[in-house]
Specification:
About 15% of the residues lie in helices and about 45% in strands. The chain is an alpha+beta fold and about 280 residues long.
Length: about 280
């Protein structure tokens, strides 16, 4: 064990903030403990987790993301946009169309550039999966769409989708801003129906092209945005005939807005990517 100065960049997409660590020239150890340490908003840098940006043999770069509790995630739609911004603006890849390797596969990104700065990114997020076994959800049903589920003595109508990571979606008529999410979120995350835990989205449909949602992310708690969650919500809404296919949907989140389209080729997500600050911190590696 030794002390080392760690270079980091703090970025966010729609308020979903991560600490980004360029790992092209160094290999980090104990990343789970490092994620927990750095993500602490009082004693660390503060964020929803950390993202390691690495070399890839199959894409322009590789992204590994870790939640604030140290658990490794498969994919984060808001984080991958920031990775695209980093690799372009630091001349790792001087193209507008790039590929990023993730734990849930290779994702294609189109960078929207103004004055040599990446202002937003469109990501091909892949096709949603509704198969309970693949999400995974323990159920006698092969597909979970608008199915009743008892959570802490209350019955919710739940739809489940995988976007490379698992999501449980609850469409609601009441104002979601009044939900006691800190109280009910953990009951969903650790419910026995979800062996790998679950990300949970609570959703209000405003009109045929606008929805509002709040998200409880496994390993991080309530976050201001979730890109895979927004895609999962739109996919479930289209599958249950609440929204139309091939129509861009504005998803309003606590931290900003994402624009999601459910196409026959898969989900498209467009959103911002913002660098907040960069710095160095002494850590044990």
């Amino acid at each position: 064990m030794q002390k080392e100065m760690l270079h980091f960049i703090k970025m966010h997409g729609c308020g979903n903030d991560y600490i980004y660590l360029p790992c092209f020239d160094q290999k980090l150890t104990n990343i789970d403990k490092l994620a927990y340490q750095l993500s602490d908003r009082h004693k660390g840098i503060g964020g929803d987790g950390i993202v390691c940006i690495e070399k890839s043999d199959v894409a322009d770069a590789r992204m590994r993301m870790f939640n604030a509790d140290g658990s490794e995630g498969a994919m984060c739609g808001n984080a991958i946009r920031c990775v695209g911004k980093y690799v372009y603006e630091h001349h790792i890849c001087d193209k507008q169309d790039i590929t990023i390797e993730t734990k849930s596969g290779i994702k294609k990104l189109h960078l929207h550039i103004q004055d040599q700065q990446v202002t937003s990114v469109t990501v091909e997020m892949g096709k949603p999966s509704f198969e309970a076994e693949k999400i995974p959800v323990i159920s006698t049903k092969k597909i979970i769409l608008d199915e009743p589920m008892k959570i802490q003595n209350e019955t919710y109508t739940v739809s489940c989708v995988s976007m490379g990571n698992p999501h449980a979606i609850i469409f609601m008529h009441q104002d979601i801003h009044d939900l006691p999410l800190k109280k009910i979120g953990p009951f969903f995350e650790y419910h026995t129906s979800f062996p790998n835990r679950i990300n949970t989205e609570f959703v209000q449909i405003i009109d045929d092209h606008t929805i509002c949602m709040r998200v409880w992310e496994r390993g991080s708690g309530e976050t201001q945005a979730c890109g895979t969650g927004a895609c999962a919500v739109v996919a479930a809404a289209v599958r249950t005939h609440r929204l139309e296919k091939n129509k861009e949907i504005e998803v309003r989140l606590t931290g900003g807005r994402l624009y999601i389209t459910d196409t026959s080729e898969g989900m498209l997500m467009r959103g911002d990517c913002v660098e907040v600050f960069e710095g160095k911190m002494e850590v044990t590696v």
